[in-house]
Amino acid sequence: MSRAPARATMERQEVRDMPDGAAETFDRTLVRLRRAAGLTQEQLAQRCGLSTRGVGNLERGQRHPRRVTVQLLADGLALPEDSRAELLAAARRGRQQPPDHPVPPRRPAPDLIGRTEEHALLDKHISGTGRPFLVFAGQTGIGKTRLLAEAATLAEARGTVVLSTACSRYGGEPYAPLSEAFARHVSEHPAGPGLAFLLPEQRTAEPAPARWQMFAEAARFLDTLARRRGVFVILDDLQWAGPDGLALLASLVQDVRPDRVRFLAAYRDTEIAAAEPLADTLLDLYRKGLVTQHSLAPLADEDATMLLHHSAGTEVGQSARDRVLRLAGGLPLFLVQLGHVLGRSGKPPAELPWGLAHAVRRQVGSLPERTVEVLTLLAVGQQRMDPDVLAAAAGLDPAELSEVLAPAHTARLLDENAEGVRLTHELVAEVVNGDLPPSRRHALHRRLAEALGGAAAAYHYTHAQDTERAAQTLRHAAEKASRQAAHDTAAQHLGALVDLLDRTGSQAAVAEAAEAWADALAAAGRYDAALAAAERALLVYRKEGDEERQRLVIARIGYLHYQRGTPREGLARIAPTLTEDRPGGSSVRLRLARAANLYQSTRYRESVEVSTAAIVAAESVGDEHGLAGGHLRRGLALRLLGRNEEALADLHTAAATAELCGDRDIVVRALTGVAVLHHYRGELTRADRQFERILRLAEELGDRELLSRAVCNVGASAVYVGRWGAALRRFSQALELAGHGRSPMCGAMALIGRGALWSACGRYDVAADDLTQVIRLGEESDNADIICNASAQLAENDVRAGRPERGVRRLLPLLALQGERSWQMTDALPFLAEAQLAAGDPVAAGETVAEAVACTEHIEHILARTDAFRVQGLAFLRRGDFSAAGESLEEAGALAERVGSPYLHARVSAAHAALSDSRGDCVAAARDRGRAEELFTALRRDALAED
After folding, report:
1. Count of Cβ atoms closer than 10 Å to residue 564 Cβ
2. I need a labelling partner for 663 at 20 to 30 A (CA). Which of 3, 21, 242, 303 fits?
3. In the predicted model, what is the mean pLDDT of residues 636-641?
4. Cis bond leading into 332, ω under 30°?
């Protein structure tokens, strides 16, 4: 008994001491032979009686093989004598290097002929050099997938954890493909609660956490997994990724450690347009310096000839070679396929399409009937399939599937990995699928739909001519995506539903689906597309003669214009319909849409009147949603007219009514109005907590416009409570959510906040760029308030940059046009007074600031009132009235102390220092100036550290 361990030790020592031969190590030899046999690690382990982990350790070079293990592997791979000898020789040589030694670049494998540059690029990328995301782009058959497979081999050889997956042509889980890659890994490892909601198999009935929390959990998952050996994420067919999956990918590329987590992807650049989500995502990552894109070109004739000879396994005659090179056009896929044909027949087909089809038919026709049945299902499915799903569709026990597929693996018709199995090339699928009679194809589509389930099933039900089941599947998938706040994915499913019903269903069903599609698109911030979907629904209702539904859709179109920042168009769209005053819910909705657009046009008094009419109409028909909306719209308009108590009463009523009828959108908007009032009243701590709570509610809803506003409000609060770095992050986040003009009004408020911060930090030119952009947006949308707000910040920027006259010229015409001061106009008065004072006109400054003090008292705008007293003190000081200056500055200091804002404290302290200087009190001046500089320095340091 004691001799067995000694014998095992001797066997291991024998393997280590065997002399070196060729350069390839055992781990690489094993990977190559296993893949040539068409086996996964799991399948090889089962054949050999080893564990999957053990095979994996051998392929990663983490173990020395024993002689008996090598023999088991050779038997499991069914190796011929020459390959068996090759594997044994590699085992004798042992590993070339210890696992922690740097791995030198590999020479390209024989079937990577002509890809020397790409191989070097991969080696550099895997080693952690350069940008964290590398993307290969090219047409079908150019060799993208083969490069990704080589990258996986290189990464595994270094001991890196490889997470590899591919996108599905016909959709999938909302956050695919990464969610599927994570799911395969965490099936053997625990995941955090946030990550679990991204995984298809681990979701529960509990509400999903906020989207940012799921993304943050995914980033923590990758960083933790990468801690020891690094992680390499490989994504194929990225052109089929949905917007939500791309959002997750972009978030991870930005948030994980680039030295530990690397990303590699491939996509067909012939299948995406400049305006598609993938193009936007790659452009955004490129601008941030996070992605490198490499376009793959067809092989040169010399390399194509070499690949053709290698694929054929023999020399190819001159005429055959010239014809194949001409037909293949340098595409590796065609060269490999034609090379295999040439290797068997010795001559090329007559022409490329027919010849390849003939070669495929010959290969498939030589296989057993049961194997052909499964290949036909794969051809109809046109995507990689999970073995269990494929087995279910084929009516096989999962244990039988491996045996049935073995002949196809031998014929190199299948590509199988941890993600599933698919036909080696799309050409095979096209040939097999094209030969099927329609009735047979319909039956196979139905079997695949029943086995797949989810959104992917809809495609197959449609092609099985089962429209009802296809529509039901798409509706269910859209509802599921909406519950997860994946509104882009929901919109994608609903768009497919509209197209399906338009071809096969009733027009009433088309209009209903188009309305739902418009709602999903609006929630995703895609207002132009939402307007087009709503117009499509309206066209159907007009044809059907349904006047009430027409009016409701027109109201929805009007509100979409409000969200889009085009109130003129919204008012014009609603006006003809509102002239016909009819009872019913449509009258309420039309008035609410008109009130919203009047509000955005700064016509607040009219908005109050129309909102009141909406409230009356809603009460008359018992419309709780309309009642909540009416109080919301009236409360928001009253707030900007300075009628705060009335505004608070309306906003509280709106929130309570909306809570009772389950309208969470109105709840969030009403609570936001209340929090803004508390903020401007100087209740900063209370408002800050409210804004954070509102942000969490907005994240649960996932509406892009609502979320952008909530994030922007958190940033504005952070400015006054002294978190400038956080404020800058929030403003940038709000701009990203507003995204590419999707929600210009939300973007305008974020630009104002960011511009004001840049100005306070001395970045005057950057501030001017942001604020000038806001003025353009205000002019486009007829919003005088944001023009005035941005102009006020620009005026302060001008004063700081030493050009106060320009600031006066900006503001004076705007304020001269106003009658009764709105909230925003009142906010601008202290800025104008300070510019007038700096421009050498203390009399005008005194008159302006006196109006500011009176107006801010009337509307309880404590923040602006603090600034008004500060400027008033400086104006008195310029006129030599030290006593009055002291009183005003004492009032400003008391207000700054009351609200507890470091920013206001710093501004008032600087003014006190100027007063002390004028009085000749050097000690007090130094104390006040030091306090102001200390506060400003801390705030600016916080902001600039974030830049």
Report:
1. 25
2. 242
3. 92
4. no
| Helix (H) or strand (E) run with residue 216 in it | helix 211-229
C-alpha distances out from residue 99 to 19, 103, 117, 291, 818, Å: 20, 8, 26, 29, 75
Measured CA to CA, the distance from residue 738 to residue 751 in angstroms comes to: 11
With CA atoms as reference, report the closest residue to 378 among 360, 391, 359, 365: 391
Look up tokens 């310096």; give the residue: 289
Map residue 98 onto helix, strand or coil.
Answer: coil
> CA-based angle 385:390:396, to the nearest 5?
160
Task: Inform me whether the pLDDT recorded for 352 exceeds 60.
Answer: no
Q: Are strands 261-268 and 133-138 parallel, antiparallel or unpaired?
A: parallel
How would you classify the pairing of strands 291-295 and 420-423? unpaired
Instruction: For residue 209, report the phi and psi dihedrals to the nearest 5 degrees.
Output: -70, 175
b vs e for 505-516, b when ≥16 Cβ sit within 10 Å of the residue's Cβ?
A: beeebbbbbbbb
DSSP designation for 723: -
SS3 199: coil
Strand ranges for 309-386 from DSSP E: none
- The identity of residue 640, as a single letter, is L
Average pLDDT of the residues in 328-337 = 77
- Contact criterion met (CB below 8 Å) for 459 and 436: no
- The rounded Cα 375 to chain-centroid distance in angstroms is 35
Report whether 413 contacts 364 (CB < 8 A). Answer: yes
Pick left, alpha or beta for residue 582 (phi over 0 → left; psi -120 to 50 → alpha; otherwise beta). beta
Q: Helix, strand or coil for residue 420?
A: strand
Nearest to 332 by CA among 300, 377, 374, 295: 300
Whether the Cβ atoms of residue 832 and residue 811 lie closer than 8 Å to each other = yes
Q: What angle do CA 33, 37, 38 make, to 5 degrees?
A: 120
Residue 617 pLDDT grade (very low, low, confident, very high; cuts 50, 70, 90): very high
d(CA 843, CA 927): 30
Torsion angle, CA of 392/397/399/401, rounded to 10 degrees? -60
Enumerate residues 6+ apart whose C-beta is below 8 A from 209.
Answer: 193, 194, 197, 217
- Residues 144, 147: Cα–Cα separation, whole Å: 5
Instruction: Report helix, strand or coil for 293.
Output: strand
| Region class of 266: left (phi > 0), else alpha (psi between -120 and 50), else beta | beta
Alpha-carbon distances of 940 from 403, 715, 797, 935, rounded to whole Å: 68, 15, 15, 9
Q: pLDDT digit string (tens) for 283-302?
A: 999 999 999 999 998 889 88
Q: E strands, 237-366, where?
A: 261-268, 291-295
Q: What is the DSSP secondary structure assignment for residue 19, as one 8-state letter?
A: P
Residue 716 pLDDT level (bands cut at 50, 70, 90): very high
Measure Cα distances from 44 to 54, 158, 396 in Å.
Answer: 11, 22, 21
- Report the percent of the chain where pLDDT is more than 90: 46
**Regarding beta strands 261-268 and 231-236, do their DSSP bridges make them parallel or antiparallel, or are they unpaired?**
parallel
Contacts of 941 (CB under 8 A, 6+ apart): none
Q: Are 703 and 672 in contact (CB under 8 A)?
A: no
- Map 52-68 to HEC letters: HHHHHHHHCCCCCCCHH
With 0-12 / 13-18 / 19 or more C-beta atoms within 10 angstroms meaning exposed / middle / buried, residue 887 is middle
Give the residues across from 264 on adjacent strands: 134, 234
Q: Are the C-beta atoms of 282 and 251 separated by less than 8 Å?
A: no
Which amino acid belongs to residue 137?
A
* Rounded CA separation 377/888 (Å): 83
Cβ count near 806 (within 10 Å): 16
* Residue range 149-189, pLDDT digits in tens: 999 999 998 999 999 888 877 666 788 888 888 877 776 56
* Separation of CA 57 from chain center: 36
The residue ranges of DSSP E strands in 75-221, in sequence order, are 133-138, 161-166
The upper half-sphere exposure of residue 885, i.e. CA atoms within 13 Å in the direction of its Cβ, equals 21
Nearest to 109 by CA among 39, 24, 30: 24
